[in-house]
Amino acid sequence: MNAQSDIEKIDAKHRIGWIGTGRMGFAMATRLLGAGCDVAVYNRTRSKAEPLAELGAAIVDSPAELAGRDIVFTMVSGSADLKAVICGADGLLSGDATPRLLVDCSSVSEDGSNEVRQALAERGAAMLSSPVSGNAKVVAAGKLTLVVSGPTESFDLAEPYLKAVGKGVTYVGEGELARMVKICHNLLLGVVTQSLAEIMVLAEKGGVPRHALLDFINNSVMGSMFTRYKSPAFVKLDWTPTFTPLLLQKDLDFGLAAAKELGVPMPVTQVTRDLVERVIETGNTDCDFGILLKQQAEDSGIDLQPENVEVDDGLH
User: Fold this and answer.
1) What pTM was computed for the model?
2) From CA 144, how far away is CA 291, in angstroms rounded?
3) What is the pLDDT of residues 35-79, one digit of tens each?
4) What domains does the chain contain, in order, with CATH numbers?
5) 89/198 Cα distance (integer angstroms)
């Protein structure tokens, strides 16, 4: 319960369902429980959801068992997973009951999201697209940000719960506009990470320790929450996954497809996507995408070593 002690309680008037307790989903559901919400949880691997029972969650064996809830949140890996947990056998819509609202926080394609939105509409339910920015540590620190699109009345209904999950909630309009915002965000994520890898290797070959360069960057106008919370990983070469190269490649592909359709040249993004693919081809699939730094070092002819320096991640 200590992990919930800093979470502000809310006037929780609705019963919440939660589907997907990977790294992000687990942390986000934890915040809803800490805010005093009535939450029932499903995860494909039940054992990954069971620790939430100690925080007050009810654990169920199928998405269908959440259909009687007022609002259901989803945080799954991709479009196929979203369609399976909503429209598949034992999915949320497989029985007679239907929740009032689905809030999908996953990074999925616009087409996949639209399919689910239509299936819900046929049952009289609404949907909000609400992808997020951050990792599990950011969620735990209360600094997650969410971008939301869908019916305004549905946003009004969900807003207190969204604010319980993260500090920044931005409503951008109807339909799937939030998906476009998240795609643009993750294109920037990939490009910035590759750029950081390049300048860190350049500085190191010139004699500057990584921690010193990052300390300067983080305190300059170019510093950000992202550069700060990734600094310990870059300094210590810790590739414990927060967001994998495979997931980054998926989002880069989404963005480049949208750019092609809309006639927007994105040469820097394309180069970054190709470099991410090289990382994957060398077998780096279950690590953190920050491993782009290791590839840049190898291409530059240097062997990076961890720096035994404590670095503030900016989350505390």
Assistant:
1) 0.89
2) 23
3) 999 999 999 999 999 999 999 999 999 999 999 999 999 999 889
4) 2-175 (3.40.50.720), 180-299 (1.10.1040.10)
5) 47
